[in-house]
Amino acid sequence: MGWIEANKKYRLKMNRRAFGFSAAASLALAGCSSAGGNVSRFQAYDGPQVTSIVINKGARKLYLLNNDKILREYEVELGFAPLGHKQFEGDGKTPEGTYVIDRRNPNSRYHLSVGISYPNTQDRANARANGKRPGGEIFIHGQPNNAKERKRAARVDDWTAGCIAVTNEAIQEIYAMVQDGTTIALRP
To answer: Where in the sequence is the domain holding 7, given as residue range(s)?
Structure first.
């Protein structure tokens, strides 16, 4: 056997090894991935309509209601200074009062989120009277997507800038169950 034939056999043997290793690695990675058992963060809901949401800030609870019947109950975390009504941007408070769910964000920094119509006309007027901005972008959302932010959130209670945080599993249910236009009452 000449040098050329030996080289061809060697390359064929190495290509087979590389293919075998590549195939084994691909199968191993496929076993580690969520494919096959992939659970979408977007769920379907076919139950009673959520007619309102109530958040009891003191109890750290969120309730999804159909009229006066509680459909779901979740624990929540609030803004980093949770006592009292949100007055202005940066105060770390979660609003109090009655608002509506007015938007949803499937590409949120916090898994999924549904928006609350804060600030209303009165909130803007109160902040303006104090020479401040009312803030905004208040959402019910899941946990941070960013690992560093997730670690910080896990270390403290009431870690948001004024939003209402729930688990990722909870926001998936909320996102599916709650429609835009649903009334939300945030109580002390």
So the answer is: 1-38
31 and 58 share one domain: no
Q: How far is residue 163's CA from residue 178's CA, in Å, rounded to a whole number? A: 17
The predicted-structure confidence for 34-44, as pLDDT tens digits, reads as follows: 344 455 678 88
- pLDDT tier for residue 26 given thresholds of 50, 70 and 90: very low
pTM as predicted? 0.76
In this structure, what DSSP letter does residue 134 have? -
| Interval 91-119 mean pLDDT | 96
Asked which of 17-21, 136-140, 158-162 is least confident by mean pLDDT, the reply is 17-21
Strand ranges of the sheet holding 164-165, from the earlier edge strand across to the other edge: 69-75, 61-66, 52-56, 183-187, 97-105, 113-116, 139-141, 164-165
What CATH number does residue 177 fall under? Answer: 2.40.440.10
* Beta pairing partners, 72: 64
String of DSSP letters for 156-168:
SSS-BSS-EE--H
Residues 67, 160, single domain; the answer is: yes
Q: How many CA atoms lie within 13 A of 41 on its CB side?
A: 18
